[in-house]
What we know:
Elements: E1 6-9, H1 23-35, E2 40-41, H2 55-67, H3 84-97, E3 102-104, H4 114-129, E4 136-140, H5 142-145, H6 151-160, E5 165-170, H7 175-184, E6 189-191, H8 198-203, E7 208-210, H9 214-229, H10 235-250, H11 253-265, H12 282-292
Parallel strand pairs: 1-2, 1-7, 3-4, 4-5, 5-6
Amino acid sequence: MIRPQGTIAPILTPFENDGRIARDLWISHAKWVLDQGAHFLSPFGTTGEALSVSLRERMQALEWLVEAGISPSHLMPGTGVTALAETVELTAHAVGLGCAGVMVLPSFFYTAAGDNGQARYYGELIERVANPAMRMILYHIPQNSGVPVSPALTARLSQAFPDVVVAYKDSAGDWNNTAAVIAAAPRVAVFPSSEAQLTKGLANGAAGCISATVNLNAAAIRALYDAALAGEDITDADAAIKAFRKIIQDAGLISAMKAVLAVRSGDRRWLNLRAPHENATQATGEALLAALGPLADHIGRS
Length: 302
């Protein structure tokens, strides 16, 4: 696999009441999302509260998934942090496990570094990992990171490392940027911000979606993806997944999804988030399930 395609879930990270990662929930949720139809999982993205989780925890939890029988060929973990040495450590670990790809933020905080600084960061990362099996997804989320991954930088990295820099996750919600990346870097698989842009993206050269709400709605999103590629009428399915997304997004993606899972599964550990987030609430989950109605009938069921 050089260019990834399909529906990808940046999976939620469940926590015990004492703050540790809840291993049993982590594994069972990952398996459920894959069983629902997601092509890949992306542990420790923004949705997974990655920047509130230590490097050691992230590596151990990734190993738990593999030990539980999830093929690393279905895993594309987030490995980007500010310090290059730590990004190298996380990335080398994931590639060494056989993961299908790694999703890498630009080095953030030093917002004036510009494309030249980020090109150096990504280039040195690739050189230090030095593994021909490495496949990288560039992660553009400037509203959180403060640092863009521009179309020009994407093209530059694709040209310099064509077998490594293979994909781009656009979480900015700006279709103009998505279209500019598709045009600037035609060898890169581009994933728009969410399933709300899935059909538009597929019609314009995008590869699928990497979306938080694949955590809850993987089956419907996968069905829409398959139907769109088959040229079927997707009007109703597209409207349904957009309605689902809006309800969850308007309530705050991470806490909303955890609240829904807590109610539907009966396991209150799903209400736990790590600081600086506030914990989710049972009442929110109940309200969201009422708002979703039949669209949520599948949640929490195998």
